[in-house]
């Protein structure tokens, strides 16, 4: 679990084919890896990756076919800058929102425009996830916890403050960039709760109807 508050920006040093999937090595000179162990998770541009090898200033993770099919990793090359966040601890200050590191879709940046010292960015998402976006709701973009400031169909606007511009890769965004999107996990669970009929509820209603018809309920 993560918070979407980026701790460092690293870069991809190698992408190695391992048959049908890949292994990626990430340099992270400014991320403290002293408390990271093999098997720990690091969000890499919003993708929860498991550390399989570790040095003082880098880590290696596997990229499964599932990860490649659902994220923007297919567009990445050696040298790609990536936002990094270690998995949160129980004592971590919760500055962002609940981020699972499970990417919902690859979106496209369609416009970047300065607004004072901030940057307004419009993003287009696949139509199937537009229902999860709401004005002033939360969204994760390449691992960064952000606020949705406007929605028009399957497009939404972000306003990036100067601190976030400096501390993340968002300063490099331009029209046409492919980015990882994770919607608010609460929206996903609420949808599931509303759509799924509980068999036990149906059975309870049937049982109550039978009791009533047979005169056991007044």
Automatic annotation (TrEMBL):
Q: Where are the Lumazine-binding repeats?
A: 1-97, 98-194
The EC designation for this entry is 2.5.1.9
The scientific name of the source species is Photobacterium aquimaris
**Record pathway:** Cofactor biosynthesis; riboflavin biosynthesis; riboflavin from 2-hydroxy-3-oxobutyl phosphate and 5-amino-6-(D-ribitylamino)uracil: step 2/2
Role of this protein: Catalyzes the dismutation of two molecules of 6,7-dimethyl-8-ribityllumazine, resulting in the formation of riboflavin and 5-amino-6-(D-ribitylamino)uracil.
Q: How does it assemble?
A: Homotrimer.
Alphabetical list of InterPro entries matching this protein: ATP_synth_asu-like_sf, Lumazine-bd, Lumazine-bd_dom, Riboflavin_synthase-like_b-brl
Annotated keywords: Repeat, Riboflavin biosynthesis, Transferase
Q: Catalyses which reaction?
A: 2 6,7-dimethyl-8-(1-D-ribityl)lumazine + H(+) = 5-amino-6-(D-ribitylamino)uracil + riboflavin
EC class, as a word, reads transferase
Q: A single Gene Ontology molecular function, please?
A: riboflavin synthase activity
- PROSITE patterns this protein is in? LUMAZINE_BIND
Q: Where is the Lumazine-binding domain?
A: 1-97, 98-194
Question: Would you tell me the protein name for this molecule?
Answer: Riboflavin synthase
Query: Where are its TM segments located?
Result: none
The alphabetized list of GO BP terms reads: riboflavin biosynthetic process
Keyword check for Electron transport, yes or no. Answer: no
What gene name is given for the protein in this entry? ribE
């Amino acid at each position: 679990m993560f918070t979407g508050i980026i701790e460092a920006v690293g870069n991809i040093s190698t992408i190695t084919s391992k048959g049908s999937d890949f292994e990626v090595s990430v340099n992270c000179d400014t991320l403290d890896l002293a408390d990271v162990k093999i098997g720990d998770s690091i969000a890499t541009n919003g993708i929860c990756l498991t550390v399989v090898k570790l040095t003082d200033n880098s880590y290696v993770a596997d990229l499964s076919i599932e990860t490649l099919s659902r994220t923007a990793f297919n567009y990445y090359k050696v040298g790609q800058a990536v936002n990094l966040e270690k998995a949160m601890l129980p004592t971590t200050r919760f500055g962002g929102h609940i981020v699972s590191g499970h990417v919902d879709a690859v979106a496209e940046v369609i416009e970047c425009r300065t607004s004072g010292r901030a940057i307004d960015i419009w993003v287009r998402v696949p139509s199937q996830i537009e229902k999860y976006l709401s004005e002033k709701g939360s969204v994760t973009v390449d691992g960064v916890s952000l606020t949705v400031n406007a929605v028009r169909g399957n497009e939404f606007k972000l306003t990036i403050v100067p601190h976030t511009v400096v501390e993340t890769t968002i300063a490099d965004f331009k029209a046409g960039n492919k980015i990882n999107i994770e919607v608010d996990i609460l929206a996903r669970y609420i949808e599931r709760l509303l759509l799924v009929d509980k068999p036990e509820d149906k059975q309870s209603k049937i049982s109550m109807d039978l009791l009533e018809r047979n005169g056991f309920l007044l």
